[in-house]
């Protein structure tokens, strides 16, 4: 019998705002639970590539995205069932503040909690406040009747006295919401950041040691038994799981897709790749940074986003990579680039210092990181040209998050883009022959 979302053993770690410490706290919880032998699965709310890579490292399993703006309820439930598999608990990190969503007001962590009927553990950064933290918790607990704040973890607590003051206020005013943890301020619970968020997990030589240290701190300061108890009564052992009901509607680029994967091309969603595998497609991976070419039997190439602007010189020197993709384009093999991958498809990339680096030259495009401007938000992309991703008029759903500027973009646009609120952003991306791409990150159709 197929399980409903309400039966899945899911739990959401959320916060009133970004920078509350929920990411590192989630990582510590995942590693602490895994170290205790708890079969835990990981998920991240919304469009994000960087945090899921850390979560996968923390629990030593894959991490998927559950996005309530781009995905339907059926897709979310099916993906959650598949991810939960035979695990005892699915721990999902929220995004931004609990009730913050897209420009149209939807797609928040709270929306996901309501759709999946999952309890929320609210992480409160109590630095600079004491009793007022209880008022914040009370407001969040009463804001939406369909969202249950099941427990609270206090973060960045300054002292035992600080903790006691807040816990006393919570017991007095919110006896039904237990405080299950109080995590002390610690420099050990911080990770370096750059312009798109945390420095990528794969770039941390000492990541495993950091995760073990975070787990030790979190296990001491958080009652893990109470945390696990929040999902007691929900059916465990969902089964092997099948993503077949979670079709995201994106046709594969080919029957053997070569996917760029290294620190410059790290942003590919696991659910999309798994959906292509489910459709019988073979996937192989190669590193442009080490001048690898796609697999010789590949009939299509996917260049995901990442940080090519930090590796312009190496990519410019990657002659084998360049020559192979040029040959594939000449044979009309589909070559698709997203965001950073799109920039690499162009003629040149200008880095933050103003240096020009020659890229693939497969699209009449020049992009610059020297003149930075933030582009951020959910997007729809309506294809104005037929591609391997769909016919003319196909509507794709995803997001945009980059700082690059377009210096030159000539030729045939890929489609028309709009914000979550429906505001027209005009033409987006480029297409030339079988080569196409844009700054748009694809999530589903």
Description:
With 445 residues, the chain is an alpha/beta fold. 28% of the residues lie in helices and 26% in strands. It has helices at residues 22-35, 50-59, 73-84, 109-116, 132-143, 160-173, 207-221, 224-229, 270-278, 312-316, 319-330, 340-345, and strands at 10-14, 40-45, 63-66, 89-93, 120-125, 149-157, 179-184, 193-194, 197-198, 256-260, 282-286, 300-303, 335-338, 348-350, 356-358, 365-368, 375-383, 395-402, 405-409, 415-419, 424-428, 430-432, 435-438, 441-444. The strands form 5 sheets. A 7-stranded parallel β-sheet has the order 3-2-4-1-5-6-7, with helices on both faces. Strands 11-10-12-13-23-22 form a 6-stranded mixed β-sheet. The protein has a 5-stranded antiparallel β-sheet with strand order 21-20-17-18-24, with no helix packed on it. Helix 1 crosses helix 7 and helix 5 (132-143) crosses helix 6 (160-173). The two termini are 28 Å apart.
């Amino acid at each position: 019998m197929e399980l409903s979302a309400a039966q899945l053993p899911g739990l959401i770690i959320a916060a009133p705002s970004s920078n509350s410490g929920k990411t590192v706290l989630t990582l510590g919880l995942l590693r602490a639970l895994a170290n205790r032998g708890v079969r835990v699965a990981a998920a991240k709310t919304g469009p994000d590539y960087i945090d899921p890579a850390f979560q996968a490292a923390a629990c030593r399993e894959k991490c998927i995205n559950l996005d309530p703006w781009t995905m339907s309820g059926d897709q979310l439930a099916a993906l959650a069932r598949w991810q939960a598999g035979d695990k005892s608990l699915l721990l999902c990190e929220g995004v931004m503040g609990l009730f913050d969503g897209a420009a149209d007001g939807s797609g928040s962590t709270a929306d996901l909690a309501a759709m999946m009927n999952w309890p929320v553990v609210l992480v409160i950064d109590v630095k600079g406040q004491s009793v007022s933290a209880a008022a914040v918790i009370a407001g969040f607990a009463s804001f939406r009747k369909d969202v249950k704040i099941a427990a609270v973890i206090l973060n960045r607590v300054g002292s035992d006295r600080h903790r006691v003051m807040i816990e006393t206020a919570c017991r007095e005013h919110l006896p039904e919401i237990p405080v299950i943890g109080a995590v002390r301020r610690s420099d050990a619970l911080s990770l370096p950041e750059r312009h798109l968020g945390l420095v990528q997990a794969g770039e941390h030589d000492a990541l495993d040691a950091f995760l073990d240290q975070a787990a030790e701190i979190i296990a001491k300061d958080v009652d893990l038994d109470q945390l696990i108890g929040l999902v007691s009564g929900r059916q465990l052992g969902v089964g092997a799981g099948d993503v077949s009901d979670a079709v995201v509607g994106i046709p594969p680029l080919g029957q053997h897709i070569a996917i760029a994967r290294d620190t410059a091309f790290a942003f590919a969603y696991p659910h999309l790749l798994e959906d292509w595998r489910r459709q019988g497609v073979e996937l192989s991976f190669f590193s442009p940074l080490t001048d690898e070419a796609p697999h010789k039997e590949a009939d299509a190439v996917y260049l995901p986003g990442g940080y090519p602007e930090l590796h312009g010189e190496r990519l410019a020197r990657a002659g084998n990579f360049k020559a192979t993709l040029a040959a594939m384009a000449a044979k009309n093999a589909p070559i698709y680039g997203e965001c950073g991958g799109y920039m690499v498809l162009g003629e040149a990339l200008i880095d933050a210092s103003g240096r020009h680096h020659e890229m693939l030259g497969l699209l009449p495009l020049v992009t610059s990181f020297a003149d930075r401007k933030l582009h951020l938000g959910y997007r729809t992309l309506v294809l104005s040209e037929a591609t391997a991703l769909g016919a003319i008029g196909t509507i794709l759903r995803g997001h945009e998050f980059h700082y690059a500027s377009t210096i030159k973009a000539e030729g045939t646009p890929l489609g028309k883009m709009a914000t979550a609120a429906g505001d027209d952003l005009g033409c987006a991306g480029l297409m030339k022959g079988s080569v196409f791409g844009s700054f748009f990150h694809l999530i589903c159709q």
